[in-house]
Amino acid sequence: MAISISVVLLLLILAVIFMRNGGLKVSHALVCALLGFFMAGTSMAPTIHSGLTATADIVSSLHP
To answer: 45-61 and 26-40 are packed helices; what angle lies between their axes, rounded to 10 degrees?
Structure first.
């Protein structure tokens, strides 16, 4: 568990750096995808999923 959290933090830092530089290349997108897969394996996954679901519900209930 400690190793996967360390990898998640490293990939998160790399993704933030890539996004701040403004150029998200294929290699950068690969790091972001790996970050997603590693995040899905952590204990934070259910919290992230419920937060995204709640946000999607709020956005879908808006009427222009």
So the answer is: 110
